[in-house]
Specification:
This protein is 45% helix and 20% strand. It has 184 residues and is of the alpha/beta class. The protein has one domain. The chain has a five-stranded mixed beta sheet. Strands 2-3 form a two-stranded antiparallel ribbon. Helix 2 packs across helix 5, helix 3 packs parallel to helix 5 and helix 5 packs parallel to helix 7. The chain is globular and about 40 Å long. The two termini are 29 Å apart.
Length: 184
C-alpha cells in the first residue's frame, strides 16, 4: 500500500492538486514499467469515517490489503494526517480526475487502469461506513480486491476490467458483486 505524501528532509510536505496529480501519474507509470502492478486502486475516506480508518489500521486492513494486492494492484490511500483539513476537496477533485465524480462518494474503493497518461475503466466499491465493525469492513475490502484480481486474471491481462458492464461500475455491496461474478 502506498500512502501519498512527499517526504522532504524527513518532514511531510503537502502537494497542490496539480503537483499531486502529476506525481500520482508518475507513480502509476513507474509501477507499470517495473511490473509492480497491472491495475490500481484508491481507498477514499475522510476523517469522519472512523470505522474505515479503524479497519485499515487496527483490523490489519493495511497488511491484508497489501498482501492481497501483490504485483497485480498498487493500492493507494491518503494518510489521514496529510490532508486533515482538505480531505473533502481532495476527494472530490481526485474522483473527478478518475472520471467518476458524481458516481462515487467516500468512503469507497475505486479500481482503475492507467493508460496513455489517463485513468480509465474505474470500478467503484462503496464501503459500508455505517457498519460499526471494523473487521467486517476490512474483510469487505479484501474480498472486493481479491474478486477483482480473479476477474482480471481470467483474461490474463487487464482487459477484463474494461469488459465489466456499466451496471457493475457502481456496486451497492459485495452480494451484488458476487452475483455478477457468478454470472461471468
Amino acid at each position: 500500500m502506498i500512502p501519498i505524501f512527499e517526504q522532504v528532509s524527513g518532514k511531510s510536505q503537502g502537494l497542490g492538486h496539480d503537483d499531486f496529480k502529476r506525481r500520482f501519474k508518475e507513480i502509476c507509470e513507474e509501477h507499470l514499467r517495473e511490473n509492480r502492478a497491472r491495475i490500481f486502486a484508491f481507498v477514499f475516506y475522510d476523517m469522519t469515517h472512523d470505522t474505515v480508518r479503524e479497519a485499515l489500521k487496527s483490523a490489519e486492513g493495511f497488511r491484508r490489503l497489501d498482501e492481497t494486492s501483490g504485483k497485480d494492484v498498487s493500492l493507494f490511500y491518503l494518510h489521514d494526517r496529510a490532508v486533515e483539513k482538505y480531505w473533502n476537496d481532495f476527494n472530490q477533485r481526485f474522483l473527478e480526475a478518475l472520471k467518476i465524480k458524481g458516481q462515487a462518494e467516500p468512503p469507497c474503493m475505486v479500481v482503475f487502469k492507467f493508460e496513455d497518461d489517463s485513468f480509465v475503466d474505474g470500478m467503484i466499491f462503496p464501503l459500508d461506513y455505517e457498519n460499526k465493525d471494523a473487521v467486517t469492513v476490512a474483510n469487505d475490502m479484501v474480498h472486493f480486491l481479491r474478486s477483482t484480481i480473479e476477474v482480471i486474471n481470467k483474461e490474463g491481462d487487464v482487459s477484463a476490467l474494461a469488459a465489466l458492464p456499466a451496471a457493475a461500475m457502481k456496486l451497492i455491496g459485495l452480494s451484488k458483486f458476487g452475483e455478477y461474478l457468478a454470472r461471468m
